[in-house]
Design a protein that fits this description.
Helix content: 55-70%
Largest sheet: none
Order of helices and strands: HHHHH
Distance between the termini: 33 Å
Radius of gyration: 15 Å
């Protein structure tokens, strides 16, 4: 799915001056971190959205201060994902 957002030219110019060619990537990262913080998506979904490993997603979320308490089910699901990745 492609999601597009129409920005007023002034806002796009301001954001491009901060992020340059990385504006789209940064918007995706900001959305992923916000949605995770709101409990709308899981860390595994963040990893998929940002095309990174689960470990990278956890580091990314930590760097953004976007953390939620993880339930036992969340931890077990993450362990299952790691086992699948490592073949254990």
């Amino acid at each position: 799915m492609t999601l597009s957002i129409d920005l007023p030219a002034e806002i796009e110019s301001t954001l491009r001056s901060h992020f340059g060619a990385r504006l789209e990537e940064r918007a995706k990262q900001d959305l992923a971190a916000a949605w995770f913080s709101e409990g709308r998506i899981t860390s595994r979904q963040v990893a998929a959205l940002l095309e990174m490993s689960l470990f990278e997603a956890h580091a990314f979320l930590k760097s953004r201060g976007a953390s939620l308490p993880m339930s036992i089910a969340d931890v077990e699901a993450d362990l299952d994902s790691l086992r699948e990745t490592t073949g254990q």
